[in-house]
Each structure stands twice: as C-alpha cells, then as structure tokens.
Amino acid sequence: MMMKAAKIRWIVIAVLAAAMAGCATSGINKGDINLITSSEEVAMGQEFAAEIETQFEVYDDPQLTVYVQSVGGRVAEVSHRNDIEYHFAVIRSDEMNAFALPGGYIYIYTGLMKALDNEAQLAAVLAHEVGHVTARHSTERLTAMYGAQIAVSLLLGDNPAEYKVLIANIFSTTGFLAYSRANEFEADRLGTSYTSLAGYDPEGMAELLGKFIDMESREPSKLEEWLSTHPPTRDRIGKVDVLAASLPMAGVGERNAARYAEMKKRLP
Ligand code: ZN
Fold this sequence. Notes:
Layout: H1 2-24, H2 38-55, H3 62-77, E1 87-91, E2 98-101, E3 105-109, H4 110-115, H5 119-134, H6 137-145, H7 147-155, H8 160-172, H9 181-197, H10 203-218, H11 224-229, H12 233-245, H13 257-264
Parallel strand pairs: 1-3
Antiparallel strand pairs: 2-3
Bound molecules: zinc ion.
C-alpha cells in the first residue's frame, strides 16, 4: 500500500508538471505531450482495471481466457513495447467492442468474439488494442484532456469513490476511449504489422473491419459504443488492405479457423 501511494503521488507530480509546462509554453500540440512514465502508466492501469472489473461483467471461462491471453500474448511479444506485462480478459456483452486501458489491460467483448470466424481476426482485434498501448495513446489523451481532474482524483487516491467518479467520467464522455482519427489509423497500422510479425495472416485486420461494416447495416444497435469511438470503418479498411498485402505473412500466415470454432463454443 505504501509503495502504491508513493507511485500515485509521483503521477500527480508528473501531471501537475505537465499542466504547468502547458501554461508556460505556446504553440505545442498538447495531444502529443506525455509526461506520464511507463511505470506510472502501469500503476494507473492497475487501478483502472480493478474499477472497470467492478462495472463490467468479466466472462470467466478459464479455458477461453487462457486462449485469448495466448493469442494476445503472441502479438504483444513482437510489439514495440514488450517490456510490460499485458493482461487480456473477456467481457460479457452483446456489443461488438474491445478496448485498452493504460498499462496494457485489454478487454474484448463476447459479442465481438461471436462475430469472428478465425484466430487471425481475433489476433487483429487484440493487436489493434496493443497498438494503442504501444503508442501510449491513453496517457497522451489523459495528459491533454484530464490532467487537472486526474491530479485531483489521485491526490485523493486512497479514496476509491474518487476513482469511480473518474472512470465514470472517462467512459461516459468524449475523450479517453474516443481516440483521435489519427490514433485509430496508427493502431490499425501497428496492429496489422504485429499480426504479421506474430505469424498470423495480416488480412485478418481487413476481415475484422469487414465484420463491422456488415453489422453496421444489419444490427447497428450492437455497434453503439464502437461507432461513437471509431472513425468510419470504410475509411480504415482501404488503408489496412494496402498495408496487409505488403506484409510477409499476407495470405500465408496462420488463420486457425478450426481452433477458433472450438473456442467459440465456450461463449455464452
Ligand atoms: Zn481503437
């Protein structure tokens, strides 16, 4: 507990320093400023994950969880940021969505897993989220948009109610989960390359985006969270297609449709 409190105070100092630096300079794109260090981000992610897991239902089928962790671990291992520990978990919800918290805490919804047909597509979802983590989009956004609020909440860090309020704000308003268009394209680009490096067919990313386009016309209600936080899917699929075709594993990487079909049977 002492260690944790000390770490949290460090984050507060960093965020306050960022806010002060912002006041003292001009003409800087604040969206790119990130004064939260990697280890501070991990400590913050741990707190957020504990809170998120009280608000969402984690679908705790041990075999399914181990499977998702193994696929996610493969893409995280070949990523630009493989010196932190990644955590992958499944959330029980009919929506088609996935998200990453600071520090490598990544969640995929059962509704999205049901819509996929092979492991290359699952790897693509997880790799896109790993891309947000490696590019550190969340702490860039936190530094830029919630700096003062985070500082206040973390100063009261021994009060879990403050974390609850902060998380509720982050998830209900624009900002944290709604990364910029540039962030989304960057996560697509990084994620697509990670799938190929991990030995998966990178076409899985375009197939994944195709699933979202299908669902947009068939059951848009399952995409409310996704559509409110991502740029139009058609804009993304073209870019991903061109990139995937240029990667070494295009058309020859693992797809593992049979294994995925077996795992899908475990979904609620
Ligand atoms: Zn994203």
